[in-house]
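Figure caption, in words: inputs first, then the predicted bound structure.
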Amino acid sequence: MQEISSNIHYIGAQDDNLDLFEGQYPLTAGISYNSYLVDDEKVAIFDAVDMRRLYDWLVSITETLGRIGAAAPDYLIVQHVEPDHAGCIGALIDRYPGIQLVCTAKAAGMLSQFFDGIDFASRCTIVADGDTLSLGRTNLKFFTAPMVHWPEVMVTLDTTDGVLFSADAFGTFAMYGDHAGGWDDEARRYYANIVGRFGASVQMLLKKLRGETFTTVAPLHGPVLSDDLAHYWTLYDKWSRYEPESEGTLIAYASVYGGTALAARRLADMLRSEGCRDVVLMDLCRHDVSYAVAEAFRLRRLVLCSVTYDGDLFPALHAFLHHFEAKKLSGRRVGLIENGSWAPVAGRLMADALGRMKDMTLVAPAVTLRSTLHDSDEPALQALAREILK
Ligand SMILES: Cc1cc2nc3c(=O)[nH]c(=O)nc-3n(C[C@H](O)[C@H](O)[C@H](O)COP(=O)(O)O)c2cc1C
Ligand SMILES: [Fe+2]
Ligand SMILES: [Fe+2]
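Bound structure (flavin mononucleotide present):
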């Protein structure tokens, strides 16, 4: 039994053999569905887990209840009804028929979409922004957090012990307790791809929490955070304002025969010679798009390089732009390189897509390659390198 504080016990489940989170994001170090049990006069559980780990979760609950000498949990606090957290609610109710759910009105409405045959109207205690609940010694305060991933989300502050149960916020693609690879990179990939579109909603939540005091953040995925909370808070604030962390440049390219890739590498050399220290070259055909989206969040500058393909963009570049636009990323300096053997149109198509996004600065017209990189293209590439770094 792992302890978050003297009376908060970790009862989450580790998923070390899921290949794709939410059906699309590759996992390299597994993921956890965190769940917490608060031992008090009333026993409360924070969030259920994915059905994939029902058995592990029920075993943890049974063992923990046994250790604390409780027969059954009184409350399940449902902060988010997405199936990676709420999937096991039906099974929990079967096992503990007296359990009361605590959630927002929106969550109660959505739960009935996921489970037939449960009367959520009588089962749910509805809480609104700022409402409190006492478990005995422990006092809980609820903060609605609409669109900090889904519309029904809330987070909960344990004002007695200073623990913020933060739902998907401050979560990461990692297992519980795993800080080994550092938090930032996978948390950024998680944030950018999963929450990235909802920056304004995250800002509203941060604003609500600004005057509150807590020393531990207990998210629904990945490690519990207690040291250096300012670091995680600062990153969340930056990401949700779409502010880059670095002045560097992402060069994201898609190439069939290597000509465009050659130009991308040449540009990377030029940028480094011009003094740009943080240059990331990414072959969009070989890296999952979620990594490119995360780097686009991290870096201020971006150069998109695409071949023209069937009168269109190369599919991998097209997919990147689509994700990128969906995340509402804004305020980047962007350069373009297009390639084509008879009628290059990739530059215009990329410029059109960028034109639909907020506050994107196209630094110069696209550099056009004819089939491959020629010596005669060097001045245009050099000019692009200088412009993008301004
Ligand atoms: C299936 C296919 C479709 C293509 N469609 C176009 C096109 O519509 N217009 C064009 O100018 N070039 C087109 N091309 C040519 C490539 O854009 C061109 O050869 C480019 O130089 C390839 O660059 P790379 O070496 O980076 O792959 C096509 C190539 C392939 C393989
Ligand atoms: Fe979620
Ligand atoms: Fe989640």
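Residues 82, 84-85, 168, 220-221 surround fe (ii) ion (ligand 3) (CB under 6 Å).
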